[in-house]
């Protein structure tokens, strides 16, 4: 699916416009990660919902779309420090280049700057929604840390993590876009649910790509979740089919601080052979279908057609 539009070209041009700190390192770190690329799905959602409802984008749509990308960028900066990542989008991660302390504080700045943009260009309803989103993002990160190495993580706990990591920010982008266009409460709620279920699907496929993707296309090393002791949906989906010996093998891998690559490959093959790929894609498609159903309330036009196609694309990407 072609995601680059005239609106996103403008987003790319203005990404650094609102990073106006006098601290040079903030400019360097912020521009380093913002210039590394990305699909810009979050600003796309803001702009497309606003345009789909009102028929056009207004000037204030852009700083708020950019603000949502800042929130995403801040979360990436913090995630890379927490995970000890070394590669992001096929180049050294910012924490490797600039150091953990600088990257954490730059992430804090970008969170604050995003909220400042909402106080300037948005309204209290948007601020309330986005502030709640940032809170849930932090809760998701903390829960993920708590559940590292936990073979028995429940599906409910896993999706609570997914909600914080990805889904709630997608949802907030859609909500902001709808609010920008003066949508009704019912429309804003449907927009939020579309983004939420789109985000669930996106992260589930992301977790699958960590099993079956390749480093070049994913943009970072694969099998990192297992290497870091994280249990995600591909493993959860086949967990009940494992015998006691297989369970103990997986538990040992999750506890191992420095697992060997042979052991990682054995567990990856185990998940794939038991149908983990198919079960994960099935779950993602269920979320996509739920997301698409939320669009029924909106008018039929090219912009909501794009959102329909975007939801389908989330499951098909990289396959």
Structural description of this entry:
The protein is mainly alpha-helical. 73% of the residues lie in helices and 1% in strands. It contains 16 helices and two strands. Strands 1-2 form a two-stranded antiparallel ribbon. Helix 3 runs antiparallel to helix 4, helix 6 (100-121) packs antiparallel against helix 7 (124-146) and helix 9 runs antiparallel to helix 15. The radius of gyration is 20 Å and the shape is globular. The chain starts with 5 loop residues before the first helix and ends with a helix.
Regions with little confidence, pLDDT below 50 for 5+ residues: none
The named CATH superfamily of the domain at 6-198 and 291-316: Farnesyl Diphosphate Synthase
What percentage of residues falls in helices of 4 or more residues? Answer: over 70%
Main sheet characteristics:
2 strands, antiparallel
Major sheet: arrangement of strands:
1-2
List the defining traits of the structure above:
Farnesyl Diphosphate Synthase, two-stranded antiparallel sheet, 73% helix, 319 residues, 16 helices
Task: Tell me briefly what this model is.
This protein has helices spanning 6-14, 24-34, 41-54, 61-83, 94-98, 100-121, 124-146, 155-180, 185-212, 215-218, 224-227, 233-238, 244-255, 261-273, 276-293, 302-316, and strands at residues 87-88, 91-92.
Topology:
Layout: H1 6-14, H2 24-34, H3 41-54, H4 61-83, E1 87-88, E2 91-92, H5 94-98, H6 100-121, H7 124-146, H8 155-180, H9 185-212, H10 215-218, H11 224-227, H12 233-238, H13 244-255, H14 261-273, H15 276-293, H16 302-316
Antiparallel strand pairs: 1-2
Helix pairs in contact: 2-6, 3-4, 3-8, 3-16, 4-6, 4-8, 6-7, 7-8, 8-9, 9-15, 15-16
């Amino acid at each position: 699916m072609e995601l680059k539009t005239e609106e996103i070209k403008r987003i790319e041009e203005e990404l650094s416009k609102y990073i106006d700190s006098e601290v040079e390192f903030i400019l360097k770190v912020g521009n380093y990660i913002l210039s590394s690329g990305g699909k810009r799905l979050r600003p796309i959602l803001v702009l497309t919902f606003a345009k789909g409802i009102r028929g056009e984008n207004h000037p204030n749509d852009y700083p708020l779309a950019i603000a949502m990308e800042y929130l995403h960028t801040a979360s990436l900066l913090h995630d890379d420090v927490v995970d000890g990542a070394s590669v992001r989008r096929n180049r050294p991660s910012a924490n490797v280049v600039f150091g953990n302390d600088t990257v954490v504080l730059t992430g804090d700045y970008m969170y604050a700057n995003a909220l400042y943009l909402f106080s300037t260009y948005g309204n209290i309803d948007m601020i309330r929604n986005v502030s709640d989103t940032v809170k849930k993002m932090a809760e998701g990160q903390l829960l993920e840390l708590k559940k590292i190495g936990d073979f028995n993580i429940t599906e409910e706990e896993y999706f609570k993590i997914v909600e914080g990591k990805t889904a709630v920010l997608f949802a907030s982008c859609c909500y902001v876009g709808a609010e920008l266009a003066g949508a009704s409460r019912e429309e804003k709620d449907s927009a939020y649910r579309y983004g939420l279920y789109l985000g669930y699907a996106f992260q589930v496929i992301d977790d699958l790509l960590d099993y079956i993707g390749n480093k070049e296309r994913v943009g970072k090393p694969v099998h990192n979740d297992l290497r870091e002791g994280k249990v995600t949906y591909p493993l959860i989906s086949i967990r009940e089919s494992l015998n006691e010996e297989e369970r103990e093998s997986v538990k040992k891998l999750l506890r191992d601080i420095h697992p060997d690559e042979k052991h990682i490959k054995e567990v990856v093959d185990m998940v794939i052979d038991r149908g983990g790929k198919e079960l994960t894609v099935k779950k993602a498609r269920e979320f996509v279908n739920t997301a698409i159903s939320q669009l029924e309330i909106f008018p039929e036009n090219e912009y909501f057609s794009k959102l329909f196609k975007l939801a389908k694309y989330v499951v098909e990407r990289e396959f």
